Fold these 3 entries.
Entry 1:
Amino acid sequence: MQNGMHTDRERCVRAVQSKDARFDGWFFTAVLTTRIYCRPSCPVVPPKPQNMVFHPSAAACQQAGFRACKRCRPDTSPGSPEWNQRADLVARAMRLIADGVVDRDGVPGLAARLGYSTRQVERQLLAELGAGPLALARAQRAQTARLLIETTLLPMAEIAFAAGFSSIRTFNDTVREVFALAPSELRARLPKTTPRAATPGALALRLPFRTPLNPDNLFGHLAATAVPGVEEWRDGAYRRTLRLPYGHGIASLTPEPDHIACRLTLSDLRDLPVAISRCRRMLDLDADPVAIDDQLRTDPLLAPLVDKAPGRRVPRTVDEAEFAVRAVLGQQVSTAAARTHAARLVTAHGDPVDDPEGGLTHLFPTPEALAAVAPETLAMPRTRRTTFTTLVRQLADGSIHLGPESDWPATRTQLLALPGFGPWTVDAIAMRALGDPDAFLPTDLGIRRAAQELGLPSTPAALTARAAAWRPWRAYAVQYLWATESHPINFLPV
């Protein structure tokens, strides 16, 4: 795949005619005769090629006057993999828009987070996506509104403001324009048996992904490293607390064959799109596993691992700063010891929350709270204590900012300058917190053992040279190499 696929007309037509779900989210098909836009895998009879035009985003389709198909529901397709595999301005902007920055801070706030002028941001988004930041945020609000209409019994006025609309009139007009139905008609179309959340703030939804998805290492890693009070594995679901812009939440995520079942309990429904976005990022659901696995299979020594269990994802995080702190706590200690260190900090400095199911007790502490901890109370070696206190102080005062918009190379340089931060810690943060799909851990003991067992070079320099052929997907190669060991991170908990 490559950037701007919607401009390759012949390839897009083939994808639509074969109803290939792998391309959902890469581009959208707008039909000139019906004024409807669809995902490539739409189940209806494909239109004639001369009646198809292709757009890079749902927002661009809406800008051009097309409404969403009622059959394939293109607004619910997985997001484009582009935004999680690139580190340029457009990709960073899209990650921030998904995180709700435009709704909270406007386009000036988005531009400030990116370090560019509003004009530059608008120009680049328009050039690549056919829509500016306001239109992209509006498309996201429409999707959130539809989700709330169909999965809750909330009054429409509450849904309008929870979805981020400034007025009920704007909400009604947007829903009608995008879906060709009034909000009440959208709700009325659902079967009476459709489950809907009656509890305020509680939602049940499905998170789509591109197949295949191997849940073993994804959920195994999250469960094996879970911090008591903040995370748990219960009844086949990974559960964790979420610190969100307007309040807090609890997410429960269960792997199913064709989707992730997601239950969200939110203290403020305005946080819904952000909560969904962060859960999707944590589970790497917008990845393109076919493209990734095809690239890794070109190495004859990696190919058997990929063929045995295709579709591995990179387990990520809902909070970049939290992961960086936990990476330091995990330096040169076992997984169990790292969990114990983190649990002590959570109990002492985390914000308490109420969990209706009783297993979760706290939000992970903020950098500001951790920066106020007396260093002598930290049960860790002096050098790691210095590493920890330096990191949380710089996160708290803004000297280092870790977020979806982080510039990967620049952030690596900043982290490497901190005391006690070597390549392993920096690349672990790049891979799991920042989302760099090409982060690599050649010095990791598990990686070196797996390389030796497979007949790959096992010294860091030689392995890095061999791994050049795996780019830009070396973070996924790490998952396949780790999976050769019998560590709990590689298995779904029983």
Entry 2:
Amino acid sequence: MSDPVDVPITGEPIRLGQFLKLAGLAEDGSHAKDLIDAEEVTVNGEVETRRGRQLTNGDVVAVGANRGKVILVH
């Protein structure tokens, strides 16, 4: 598995569905919802089924082999 790609965000918290789109792990909100519903999304190695899960600095989100890391920018 490759290292996660750093995805800078300017405001905390960010919701999982929003992050999936921002990180390019989902095409749009509908795709993000489908991935989450299919239990294909993990946060810090744990399957996450809540699209509204709030992510914080350092969280790693994965869909298959693709991973993105939340990096808070002040």
Entry 3:
Amino acid sequence: MLILTTAVTAGALTVSACGSRGDDKKGGEGSKTSVTIGLDAPITGELSALGLGIRNSAQLAVDNANKAGEVKGVDFKLEPLDDKAQANVGQQNATKFAGDKDVLGIVGPLNSSVAQSMQQVAQQSGVALISPANTTPDLTQGKDWKQNKRVRQFSTYFRTATTDEVQGAFDGQFAWEKAKFKNAYVIDDQKTYGAGLAASFKTQFTKLGGKIVGSEHVNPEDRDFKAVVAKVKAAKPDVVFYGGEYPASGPLSQQLKDGGVTVPLMGGDGMYSADYIKLNKKAQGDYASSVGKPVEQLDSAKKFISDYQAAGYKDRYEAYGGSSYDATWALIQAVKKVVGDNGGKLPGDARKKVVDALNQVSFDGVTGHVAFDKYGDTTNTMITAYQVDQGKWTARFSAEFKKFDKAGKS
């Protein structure tokens, strides 16, 4: 069931990121060890609005950590690489990071499909990979998680975003119980994230009594949806659910309305971006869910928002700013423990020990309490439903999602 919970209040946070290992060139008393944290995200291209928010938030964490001296004797450095939302580029970036002995952890990526290409590289090199945005359950629990045969896939992989098992089910329940939709048409972009999210929505929506009146698969690059619009119009749904990202869902929504389908389009966190509204002149009334609560509503995020504004970033922190800060902070806390356990110095097997330390991380972060379960998944399952109202996303409902039994009851 959906259970409203109060936000976890956190104290002031200091975070850091990328850096290199080994003593700095100055040497001598007072010198600091430099630690690099890599960052992988789509910094250019259609998904760059989200990627730039991830990069900036991690950089803010680095700067704050260094200013505060969060880890005594350690100076953090962020090294961002652009994956262009492409799996092969993400794999190349992971290989580059793995080959740099100074890199003790990687923040990213945004896309679950990119993560699939990076995980094995990170595992083989023993470097921690922690995503603020990946939501596909397979990444942590394996392809048989739906049959409750859950097995951790990679000991080096973690995430501060909850999974589509939670998000898709939340969407299905919100559509049925809160929005009162009875019939849904489901479309997905066939990518790892979109297809998984749509499948989870279908499962929960039908379990509660909803009816799927049609389904369609499109390509992520599609921008002409005339054929799909005709099919949706004939099916007469109460809502159209889209599993995918905003570069396609924005045009899809507008074309649906232009074609006479006046019901809302609904999707997940891949849709939750200000750029979705820019791409869609008829976005009014559409829905999207996103992981966590709006940071603007969290006392624990006040310092993050203030610091981000003061830093003067021209790009918004977007959907994953808070979780990116927390992902970076988790790595810093792991480094802090490793250094503390080794007499104030980094050990020779620092990468392995950072991974071990991440399994024990527990702190109050920007988005709430940050900790990881036995699969590397965040223990924070808060989700928020947003609706476009007067040109901006407005939070409608936040809840912590609890698993259902076969009857759909909590």
